[in-house]
Queue: 4 jobs
Job 1
Amino acid sequence: MSPALPALPFGPERIAVVSITRHGIALAGRIVAALPGATLFVPEKFAAEAEAAAPGAWQGYAGKTGEQIPILFSRYDGIVAIISLGAMVRLVAPHLQNKESDPGVVVLDEAGLFSIPMLSGHLGGGNALAGHVAAAIGATQVLTTASDARQTLAVDLLGRELGWTFEASHDELVRTSAAVVNDDPVALVQEAGSPDWWPRHANGRTGPLPANLRRFARIEDLRPEDFAAVLWITHRQPEPELAARLAGKRVIYRPPVDA
């Protein structure tokens, strides 16, 4: 049995579906139907096709599609584009900011064969959105993020389904993520929160915890110097001496206090 799809980090009303051709609009209608509350965006000349595909759930625009990108980026958290991957790269490139704020962008071909998360796969929810779209229309989800391709731990998604937040700089996220996917020794310390996070993690994990992750019950039980990265699930604040030893290679996860 396939694992359940991960929850989207935003509601359907925060999703825009964009199509610029007649055939693509028909496919877009199926996506909007599967995500009630999503809005279809099409060139004005395809108003009749849009109304037939997504009655009352579409908006037309005049001018070039590229002129709509900053508007969509400011109003929506997820964008599904039935546009070629190369064309969409060129359209969004001038408007990219960072992975913490850019929306999740998914690209589909007109035949509806492939659902490809193109931008903000993890933090922006692109991978999760691609999975929901693929399931809705019978497409193949194409994941290129290393943690998902290898079914290992995604550092920036750990515990999100359980309401956990995390504290880390951009450089710390990059360093700890690299340590996980490169099979470097990683300490995982869990002092708080639900213990069943692994099978509910990211896009669903069915295998064992990766062998390069070593679990600890307390931060005092490990020597940070022995590990390339430390993932610490806790309600505590690190003492200054420990904070210095963890600096640059740790992510601290904060489960809800009552969880």
Job 2
Amino acid sequence: MAPRPQTAALVKDRSDYTVRRLSDCHKIADFRDLARRRLPYPVFNYIDGAADDEATRDRNTASFADVDLVPDVLAGAEALDLSTTIMGRESALPLMLSPTALQRIFHWQGERAVAAVAERHGLWFGISSLSTVSIEEVGERWTGPKMLQYYYHKDRGLNAALVERAKAAKFDAITLTVDTIVSGNRERCKRTGFTTPPRFTPSNLLSYATHPAWALNFLFREKFDLPNLSTHVEAGSGKAISIQDYFDSMLDPGLNWQAAEQLRDDWGGPFCLKGIMSVADAQRAAEMGVDAIMVSNHGGRQLDGGRAPFDQLAEIVDAVGDRVDVILDGGVMRGSHVVKALSLGAKAVSGGRLYLYALAAAGEDGVERAITILEQEIARTMKLMGKRSPADLSRDNLRFR
């Protein structure tokens, strides 16, 4: 008897095909492969890496595989409405593009590419305090729902300036990151010597030199800057510094609930806490009157060995889901992951790597393709589940292994 064809195995085995161009990308993991080919290794490993042994980073995505979807059939789900309201503004999908730092290091188009795609798709997006375009430019150019991710610095003048600039630029929300009072141990960055801006050393120069498209764009396009910070601090804009050193030297380890409440009052608008992982903290945030919380472990980049957001989601939804918008942040790589989180009670999901790989791989075109793929995956999963809208989802659709 002739051997059975091995086509399925060949397709599943990633060693048997190579992602060389944008058209080869059919899922988020493909953009990661393309980004790895196109970036110098210190830059790629900054995006891809996490803390210590990176166990929490890996668990963030693996956790979704421990829950199975149970579909309903003959339900007539031809007309979908995937829209939802997050912190008072409508989003076309229950998907947010998390604020991430340093985006013009990954691709010269940076935050501008991400903002443009978010606006076309009607999605929330955010910029980091460490963004490479200014609060003012984002406020002037894009009208969609947007947040400022806020790092609480030792420099009180800088803290106050960020709030006033966000008000003037008519941002919709401030999101205070609460899990960075000290930096996680990012060993990949230590090994590669990654700094912002990048510092060329004998050990990494070859990697930069063998990626000339990246190098030429970085050296000869718009000068690298962190415009939301450079009016107050030199570190990270003119002076090369590692992210670990920046967090440890510039951010305030005394950040506490009283400071968060004061920031909420100073801002006076929709307010979110990012990095909530315990039920007790979620309850205190709800009592404080926040509009939303992001159940997040910073992509596994802070506390290695911490619980994955999806593993913790049900407890937090049960505790505060009727009082605040609970947003799952981290590990999302598939549309089915979005549907599983919504079934547990999340209002929406958010992620950074899910679009950063695509940005690094191909700029705005890459982000557009990635978000389109995720949108199609969400819609297809909803139809196969027999559901017309996020409101139709519930835990009845899930079984834990």
Job 3
Amino acid sequence: MLGSTVTAAAKRARFRADLASGRLLRLPGAFSPLVARLVQETGFDGVYVSGAALSADLALPDIGLTTLTEVAERGGAIAQATDLPALIDADTGFGEPLNAARTTRVLEQAGLAGLHLEDQVNPKRCGHLDHKSVVSVAEMTGRLRAAVDARTDPDFVICARTDARTVEGLRASIDRAKAYVDAGADMIFAEALADESEFEAFRAGVDVPLLANMTEFGKSRLLDAATLERLGVNVVIYPVTTLRLAMGAVEAGLRTIATEGTQASLVPAMQTRARLYELLDYAAYTQFDASVFNFTVGGAEQ
């Protein structure tokens, strides 16, 4: 009831411990707190807050138009809705190194377990689109050092994302990742790798946890969890999957109503009211309310 009962510090400690466990952690994207609650209930290891999904939910393209305030507000609400650790997409840190420092502090205070910063130029682009540009290694390491210095909880995870694979090539992107680890990155997110061999090359190149992005309609093959674990990947995210599932169903449903004049044929595919109330733990709120408001008003005014 009323969201998570686990402290943000405990979630971060759990995330750190899980990263060191050697097993693959699966983090589906949650574009809302309610989705995060369902991610927890279905047994996943954590929640991912995607910048692309957040932008899309605001009816904006993923080109750096969202603000730190918007990201922190949504990310904090999602983190509070679940007992799982939540990793958030912080784009390029919303500006220069000092901005990256403030971004880290704000997102840590909002209850997130970690963030990732990327080495694209501002304004950034979706990682699986063409014509991306990356900043110099020196500029990116400046962002990372600022973020590392700004955190107050040493368990807050700073992940470095490199988009250099499709810009400078595989070897250069691995060299960048090594530099990012030297700058203090706790984890590496290698964006838009093509296949298993490229994940193997990254695993051999860096000795910190490695994150894989299994997004649909992108440049990476959709590898299953067993394969990723065999390759030595530590975290896999499914960033926009739940949003795409939801929007596909919403669009199909709206077209059906427009055509048929009623939603009657759609009811069997809907989440029932009882199931929604179960997910919200409605009964606990009702019980709590009754335990507080358990008095009656007398007939005469005192």
Job 4
Amino acid sequence: MSYDLDSSSGPARPAPLPRIGLLGTGPWAHRAHAPALAAHPGSEFAGVWGRRPEAAAELAQKYGVKVYEDPDALFADCDAVAFALPPDVQAPLAVRAAAAGCHLLLDKPVATTVADARAVAEAAGRHGVASVVFLTLRFAEPTAGWVGEQAARGGWFTASAHWLGSVFAAEGGPAGAAEGTPSAYADSPWRRAKGGLWDVGPHALSVLIPVLGEVTAVTAARGAADTVHLMLRHDSGAVSTAALTLSAPRAAAGVGLELRGGEGVFTLPDWSDVPGAYGRAVDALLTAARTGVPDPRGAAFGLRLTEILAEAEDLLTAAAT
């Protein structure tokens, strides 16, 4: 915490906490963003804006914060903004928020076109605001610490990842839910349009890249429903694979990542504390804002993820024609 040390103003006193506003009112905002922002001790949850005014009013009332009818008014009142919006709604609003001087806590993917993702990264740089992309595995524990340990270990030969969600499974229900229970995310139009590649692909890449190195070549093939299989060559010489879907049968759903190298086989640990992970993302954003040192999980990294996913999508489209 910083303090006002101006002797003319009397005793030193704590500086005001940075104010963070939330854009978005969907299931992810209810599950992760809003509770984490409300509980965060180093910032003030300032208010909510949403595309559905009634939903924004309901969420704001739940946490006792202001509801905004205009996102630009929220930007004007805040030091930072958190996004819980579809990627192609998020991107142009993030550019506007950066221009207003707000630091950016972005959701993944930053955008589904390279042009839009680049616009966000360039806006953050041009206006000197900090940015962090909330990639769950990079902030949840123990996965975040595990990624750092494996990146330091090096000497990797290969890796395989799978994120098999059942959001659109025929029998209904996400992994771990009762059969027939619909997923809270099943009504998401952008997820239906873009599938597992864009929704869970960023999670797999967010681990594979820091451990194995930059992606230098991409191969992609389609499987059942929205399933996509990626093969990635990394600048370390290692090759990784990733199987991604939102349509796995409930009994087959799951998440995993395995690394193999000279020191043996290492497996991604389990995690569960999503609000805690989001709180650590807030910490990372505030640290980057305070120090001026860009976070490695910022908008520039979000742009790189979009470039890789867009390349894979282009390969899939070409193969289908």
